[in-house]
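Researcher: Here's a chain I'd like modeled. Treat it as a single chain, no partners, no ligands.
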Amino acid sequence: MRLMYMKGLLFLILFVATVPFSFCQKAEIIYKNDSYQMQRKGRSFVLINKRLDISNKVLVAKLKGVSLNTGKSNLQKVYNSFYYNANQLGANSFVIDTIIGAHTDTISIQISVYNLSKDENKLNMSLFTNNSIFLVGGLKKSMEGKSFKLNNEKAILPAMVYQEYPLDIDEKLKISIGGILGASVTFTGYEGRTPTFISLHGLTVAPGYSSGVGISFNTGRIYPVDMSFGYMLIAALRKSE
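Model: Modeled as a single isolated chain. Structure tokens:
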């Protein structure tokens, strides 16, 4: 009995020890600032707005990830690995340096990661005021298009593309999926509105899922997408005409 307990305990220890490694190995650390003194690990991961001055911020590291746009290798897993590795290095924010192969079957992304203070992060988030709704398609190239309704008009969202719907003040946009038994959500434009990213395929962000700024819905088949993740996606995916 004791032997079985010890074997079970050993298995659990080995499992826990290997999960972070298997998770973070997808992102390559191509530069690490060894002089950076980490006070604590990061607890969030946000895109740094281009209007935020970070000229005096210390670069923590540079990360690289590659997506083959399949079930085992896709942009969601690349972003998750960025998130995990950045937090482990003491960073909580990033800028996109380069994207090679956007709109193709192999997408390579390089980012620089930093650590923003609480006040800097608050200012950063206030700079995102794009009054648009972004609808993101599936992240596997083999996925079929998703049927939905836009203001009661039928539409299809193919995989590996996104659609943007700018809203005027007080303009409404209704997105529905699944007919009578499905789900729907209505958005209204207003001044200073933060951008909203949604998916019909259930995208999530780990290790700490965030529904993004200004989103407080979960209809079961229409899913909120983290805003920073969303911005990375639309930089890598093709925009639908």
